[in-house]
Amino acid sequence: MRLPQTRDLFIREFDFPAHRDTVIEGVGDVELDAMYGDPETIAEVLSRTDQAEFDSVDELYDALITFVGEQYIGRKFYDDRGMNPETDEEVSF
């Protein structure tokens, strides 16, 4: 499942507030498609947070997005800015 689709899944499956254990029990085995590397399950991601209860779907989705692994990050260390060697000023391309 793609990360943005999880928000709709959470809306369909849970009433809020929802306990982390309830979420893991209900949809924890759902694999999240990773752009780079191996996928993770929702349970693996949520096991990284100490938050025991989510007051809203947005809070749950934000926790998921916050704790996904680096295989979900786009181009690491990408910066579209550079330095102008003549002036040592930052430039945008």
UniProtKB/TrEMBL annotation:
Alphabetized InterPro entries for the sequence: DUF5789
Pfam name, any one: DUF5789
Protein name in UniProt: DUF2795 domain-containing protein
